[in-house]
TrEMBL record, chain A:
Membrane topology classification: Multi-pass membrane protein
Protein name from the UniProt record: cytochrome-c oxidase
Domain of life: Bacteria
Pfam families given in the database record: COX3
InterPro entries linked: Cyt_c/ubiquinol_Oxase_su3 (IPR024791), Cyt_c_oxase_su3_dom (IPR033945), Cyt_c_oxidase-like_su3 (IPR000298), Cyt_c_oxidase_su3-like_sf (IPR035973), Cyt_c_oxidase_su3_a-hlx (IPR013833)
Primary site of residence: membrane
Transmembrane segments: 49-68, 89-109, 158-178, 190-210, 230-255, 275-293
Heme-copper oxidase subunit III family profile domain location: 2-294
Gene behind this protein: coIII
Entry keyword set: Membrane, Translocase, Transmembrane, Transmembrane helix
UniProt record similarity statement: Belongs to the cytochrome c oxidase subunit 3 family.
Compartments where found: Cell membrane; Membrane
Origin species: Marinobacterium nitratireducens
Automatic annotation (TrEMBL), chain B:
Protein name: Cytochrome c oxidase subunit 1
Encoding gene per record: coxA
InterPro entries tied to this protein: Cyt_c_oxase-like_su1_dom, Cyt_c_oxase-like_su1_sf, Cyt_C_Oxase_1, Cyt_c_Oxase_su1_BS, Cyt_c_oxase_su1_dom, Cyt_c_oxidase_su1_bac
Catalytic function, reaction form: 4 Fe(II)-[cytochrome c] + O2 + 8 H(+)(in) = 4 Fe(III)-[cytochrome c] + 2 H2O + 4 H(+)(out)
Lineage of the species this protein comes from: Bacteria, Pseudomonadati, Pseudomonadota, Gammaproteobacteria, Oceanospirillales
Pfam families in the cross-refs: COX1
Membrane topology of the entry: Multi-pass membrane protein
Length: 294, 529, 370
């Protein structure tokens, strides 16, 4: 609990620039979506969006470079390290709650809303508005097939999703092996096992993209396909975005290892990415269970 | 410019003083600068949201449509709510946390100072985007601050997209701010400052920060589903595709109810600092206060559907949420009893912060009483979405949250500026606010019980008299807040010199620092015995 | 002492009260058994709150008066007392349990909508109510009847300003009526304070509520869920009649519906259609598109000079009959009869300088609106 020398960074331009970038990104995205829905020209939207995104990436690069330099020049005490750990843990907790909202949605529609619409349970009287509709899950026939044509087929969990599960779970192991190697100071093993982790992550993403392609082009499973498609894509989609981010973070860590960063004692950057990767993995297990199998 | 604090006191102070010019505020990593930014921003938003409230009250002064059309009226109620919740109350508490938490626990600054600056600077941009919707085609969001689907999806104006992204930005800001508070409290306490020695304001913020991190992502989730429904053809909130509009309310209130406590727990903390100071007596039942805040926080995750008693929940759900909600009265009662027991047999004086704190205890409790009434599900069928609810939540938010913020400002301003506040002007501000707030919101109980729904621009004749009374009160309250602005500016510019302790009965680390507090709070950690 | 000054304006106010119902300060006494029970619950919990308030604020003000420094009070240093703390945790807990028992009993009865004598489906629309008597072939809309001039302060406001409709819901006294509530667009909420019935109308779902009205008379309420622009202008009016009068009303309503159907077979001139169209327009369309057809830019399109109202008649009929998905434009084919549809379309094509000279007959509409 000592505050003997806690590093307080000097003034920094990054935060305000990052706020501007975030604003451009958000304003551009809003513009773009409204233009798409109204069938208007999307030029301004794209321009602002990409400008904001580019700026944000450049800022994050610069900001993290600052942090890395500070860390490398030994300005961070153990206490500072703990602040980072608390920060990362609570950030991951916030991500857990983000996914919790979508899992909650899935459970609610499966167990309450769809059965009610189909005439079951306490609000089953609702079925009078949707004559002929029957509750089922996966929801292949929606209450209003004209507006939301249900999927023709859904994805079998025992092909690509199973493979993806194996890939992600093994990647959790490989990143742990790399971490062990780091603690033992075996640099070539870190490089190797991190590279394997990145490859596993990347192949997951490729298969996921292929699965989406199949869903859209052959199975009729789309965002428009009623609540099954909506929950399927929002859960797997946000998970996929997190895997993408995690993979990028792993690549950066890998490059840093190549440059000789991290010591056996001090390597919080590495650990943070590993935590994040495990988190993404756990979410996938939830997805595999509740979205694909059950 | 790089230096490590505590190596060499003289040097660091020299190198690490405030920068000059606008750059000081734009690039700062100092918790006091960032705290001030939050507080000024909150004041600006408070006045903006207040102006909208006055417009609403002016329209409601008499039956019939006089000043605005219904569509603009709905935009005003929506923006008033959003601005007050996300722009005025929350940033004010974050500002107070930034200023006070490091000083109260003996830390040099917040744990993650650069991120701290980012948390703040996102807000002005988010609000610029949200307020700009007023000038867009189709107008600003007009679906109430609770934005129930499908009014906020299929039937919303196009500006809803920008509203959604503004909410996302505010969420990012809040989460980062909360992470910073937690890391600071858990990691930067001075030696000897154990958890059960933490000042209650710090405890209340620790729990508030936890609530923020738990529920802001849920808000992000629900607005994301709205965005998908609006632009990407999903059917989360549309029965035609198997979704449910009520699902929106469940997810929203899972965020929304803890959000209510996010806006009141820090107020509990502030009041628990102020009453002991002016009663010259230690807080009664410190441990039970901590447990009470904790229980309220946990219960807040189990009561969300009491906002939805009329949506047709199954009976079992209705009963569960009624019982859980009634339970909240127990820890809340404990807090009020403890405050009263602290005053009992104390040696009280009534400076401006204490007046606001006492008004808080009485008026917040009245808001708590109407909350208890609303918890009774069968009775709620008569209260729900009437002015009775409006009266209830304004009693807990205005003389509750806002009064606690005013109290905190008057209490700590001498420490921030080095000057005592002008007591006379402070008291005038208090009495005008106190009278104004009651004239505004008390009659709302009556019109609500008599049957006036909320969010209507025009009303039946039997509600007319109380509505004009409320409007008069609103203008008294609203205009008297200009006095607050005046008082703050006067205190910054000069006044009697404040001592280090400032108030005779004050205890705690922040009062051991000089007034005004040095730019870096505790370069050397103090030892707490 | 000083603290009580805030009471003064209130006392002043109370004294100056004109003895009028306009200062109603409490829930309506209720005109059904459930409503009276709820009112009783309300009063019990209210008095509990008052009692707690008197004790807590009493101690507080007593301390404020007696334990002030200016009176030379010295602070006594005690800051914990486990017994007292447990006591003031347990006592409120006990009070709450005592309160929960009757509340639960009432709630369970409110949820029992079985064995109803009459089923009425209530559908919320932006901004009107539709009442369908299931099994009786009666189906009509209920729209605010307060004239615009009163709202715009151009005429004196009537006694039931904003609480009056063209066609109230008519119910028989003494019978259990079950309401099946739903909505056509956004969420509405149907509330009659005297019945203590308030239930949300959720699009795509059906909620149940019930009432046994006791006394014949007229009962008024409002929509209580924000439902867009005219949320404040969609009242609920219920007329309770004795059984015989209700039966008579049922028979009359049925023959009126038949007469309406017959009107669709007649020939209608352009002038007749225009005259009727203006009425229909003002009750069904003017809320959004405004009486002058100018609409609200960005939210509701103008009809005056619009491509739809002045172009080819086909798309115009189509949008009126079927609405436009994803917008507030409703499908009026299901709401209005053929005569009203023909009239309003004809009116829109010839009013406000649109002057297309087109007219469409009820027969044509009936054919298209199968």
């Amino acid at each position: 609990m000592s505050t003997a020398s806690y590093y307080v960074p000097p003034q920094s331009r990054w935060p305000i620039l990052a706020s501007i970038a975030l604003f451009l990104l958000a304003f551009g995205a809003g513009n773009l979506m409204n233009a798409l829905s109204a069938g208007a020209s999307t030029g301004t939207g794209w321009l602002l969006l990409l400008l904001g995104l580019g700026m944000l990436l450049a800022i994050l690069f610069g900001w993290f470079r600052n942090v890395v330099h500070e860390s490398m020049s030994g300005m961070y005490s153990e206490q500072m390290d703990r602040s980072f750990r608390w920060g990362m843990s609570w950030f991951i907790f916030s991500e857990v709650m983000f996914f919790a909202a979508f899992f909650g949605t899935l459970f609610y529609v499966r167990n309450l809303a769809v059965p009610w619409l189909g005439g079951e349970g306490e609000k089953g009287v609702s079925n009078m508005l949707w004559e002929g509709f029957q509750a089922q899950w996966p929801l292949m026939t929606t209450p209003d097939m004209e507006r939301f044509p249900g999927p023709e087929q859904i994805i079998s969990p025992w092909h690509l999703p199973l493979l993806n599960t194996v890939l992600l779970i093994s990647s959790s192991f490989t990143v742990t092996i790399a971490h062990k190697a780091l603690k033992l100071g075996n640099r070539s093993n870190i490089v190797l096992w991190l590279a394997v982790t990145v490859l596993l992550g990347a192949s997951f993403l490729v298969f996921q993209a292929y699965e989406y392609y199949e869903a859209y082009h052959h199975l009729g499973l789309t965002l428009h396909a009623g609540i099954y498609g909506a929950t399927f894509f929002i859960l797997t989609g946000f998970h996929g975005m997190h895997v993408t981010l995690g993979t990028l973070m792993l690549i950066i860590i890998w490059l840093r290892v190549l440059k000789g960063h991290f010591s056996a004692e001090q390597h919080f950057g590495f650990e943070a990415v590993a935590w994040y990767w495990h988190f993404v993995d756990v979410v996938w297990v939830g997805l595999f269970l509740f979205v694909y199998i059950l | 410019m790089e230096s490590t604090l505590g190596q060499n006191l003289g040097d660091t102070h020299h190198a690490h003083g405030p920068a000059s010019g606008i750059g000081r505020w734009l690039f700062t990593t100092n918790h006091k600068d960032i705290g001030s930014l939050y507080l000024w921003f909150s004041l600006l938003m408070f006045l903006t949201g207040g102006t909208m409230a006055l417009l609403i009250r002016a329209e409601l002064f008499q039956p019939g449509l006089q000043l605005v059309q219904p569509e603009f009226f709905n935009q005003m109620t929506t923006m008033h709510g959003l601005i007050m919740v996300f722009g005025a109350v929350m940033p004010a508490f974050v500002g107070l946390a930034n200023w006070m938490v490091p000083m109260m626990i003996g830390a040099p600054d917040m744990a993650l100072p650069r991120m701290n600056n980012w948390s703040f600077w996102i807000l002005p941009f988010a609000f610029a985007m949200m307020i700009s919707t007023l000038f867009m085609d189709g107008g600003a969001p007009n679906f109430g601050w609770t934005f129930y689907a499908p009014l906020s999806t299929t039937y919303a104006p196009p500006s809803v997209t920008f509203f959604i992204f503004a909410i996302h930005m505010m969420g990012i800001s809040s989460i980062m701010g909360a992470i910073n508070v937690i890391a600071t409290i858990l990691n930067l306490r001075a030696p000897g400052m154990t958890m059960m020695k933490l000042p209650l304001f710090v405890w209340s913020w620790l729990i508030t920060a936890f609530l923020l991190i738990a529920v802001m992502p849920v808000l992000a989730g629900v607005v994301t589903m709205m965005l998908m429904d609006i632009h990407f053809g999903t059917s989360f909130f549309n029965a035609a595709g198997g979704g449910d509009p009520v699902l929106f309310q469940h997810v929203f209130w899972f965020f929304g109810h803890p959000e209510v406590y996010i806006m009141i727990l820090p107020a509990f903390g502030i009041i628990s600092e102020i009453i002991p100071t002016f009663a010259r007596k230690r807080l009664f039942g410190y441990a039970s206060m901590v447990y009470a805040i904790g229980s309220i926080a946990i219960l807040s995750f189990l009561v969300w559907a009491h906002h939805m008693f009329t949506v047709g929940l199954p009976l079992a759900g209705e009963l569960f949420f009624m019982f859980a909600t009634m339970l909240i009265a127990v820890p809340t009662g404990v807090k009020v009893f403890n405050w009263v027991a602290t005053m009992f047999r104390g040696s009280m004086t009534f400076e401006t912060p204490m007046l606001f704190a006492l008004a808080f205890v009485v008026l917040f409790t009245i808001g708590g009483f109407s909350g208890l009434m609303l918890a009774i599900a069968p009775a709620d069928f008569q209260y729900h979405d009437t002015y009775f609810v409006v009266a209830h939540f304004h009693y807990v938010l205005v003389p509750g949250a806002i009064f606690s913020i005013m109290a905190a400002a008057y209490y700590w301003l001498p420490k921030w500026t080095g000057h005592m506040i002008n007591e006379r002007m402070g008291k005038i501000h208090f009495w005008l606010s106190f009278v104004g707030v009651n004239i505004t919101f008390f009659p709302m109980h009556f019109v609500g019980l008599a049957g006036m729904p909320r969010r209507i621009p025009d009303y039946a004749l039997q509600f007319a008299d109380f509505n004009s009374v409320a409007s008069v009160g609103a203008f008294i309250f609203g205009l008297s807040q200009l006095l607050f602005v005046y008082n703050v500016i006067v205190c910054i510019r000069g006044g009697a010199r404040a001592t280090d302790r400032v108030w005779e009965g004050a205890h705690g680390l922040e009062w051991t620092l000089p007034s005004p507090a040095p730019y870096h709070s505790f370069s050397q950690p103090p030892v707490v015995k | 002492m000083i603290k009580r000054i805030w009471l003064l304006p209130w006392i002043g106010l109370l004294v100056s009260l004109p003895a009028a119902a306009a200062w109603q300060v409490n829930l309506s006494p209720g005109s059904t058994e459930i409503a009276r029970d709820i009112r009783e619950l309300h009063m019990i919990i209210f008095w509990i709150c008052v009692a707690i308030g008197v004790v807590v604020f009493g101690v507080m003000f007593w301390s404020i008066i007696h334990h002030r420094k200016s009176r030379g009070a010295e602070a006594h240093h005690f800051h914990e007392n486990t017994f007292v703390e447990i006591l003031w945790t347990l006592i409120p807990f006990g009070i709450l349990i005592a309160m929960a028992v009757p509340a639960t009993a009432t709630l369970i009865r409110m949820y029992d909508s079985t064995e109803a004598d009459l089923d009425v489906q209530i559908t919320g629309y932006q901004w009107k109510w539709r009442y369908q008597y299931l099994g009786h072939d009666i189906d009509y809309f209920s729209v605010l009847s307060t004239p615009r001039e009163q709202i715009n302060n151009e005429a004196e406001k009537g006694e039931h300003y904003l609480l009056e409709v063209d066609n109230p819901l008519v119910l028989p006294a003494g019978k259990k009526v079950r309401f099946l509530l739903t909505s056509n667009d956004v969420i509405h909420s149907w509330w009659v304070p005297d019945f203590a019935v308030k239930k949300d109308a959720i699009p795509g779902f059906v909620n149940e509520a019930w009432v046994i009205p006791e006394e014949p008379g007229i009962y008024r309420g409002q929509c209580t869920e924000l439902c867009g622009k005219d949320h404040g202008f969609m009242p609920v009016v219920v007329e309770v009649k004795p059984q015989e009068e209700f039966d008579q009303w049922l028979a009359d309503a049925r023959s009126a519906a038949e007469a309406q159907a017959a009107a669709a077979e007649q020939d209608w001139s352009l002038e007749q259609l225009m005259e009727r169209g203006e009425q229909v327009y003002n009750s069904a369309c003017a809320a959004c598109h405004l009486p002058n057809g100018q609409g609200v830019p960005g939210a509701f399109p103008a009809l005056a000079g619009s491509p739809i109202a002045t172009g080819d008649i086909g798309p115009h009929i189509d949008i009126v009959l079927h609405g436009k998905a994803g917008t507030a434009m409703q499908a009026f084919g299901a709401q209005l009869d053929a005569v009203d549809l023909a009239a309003v379309i004809t009116y829109e094509r010839n009013a406000w300088g649109n002057d297309t000279g087109d007219s469409v007959s009820p027969q044509q509409i009936a054919e298209l609106n199968q």
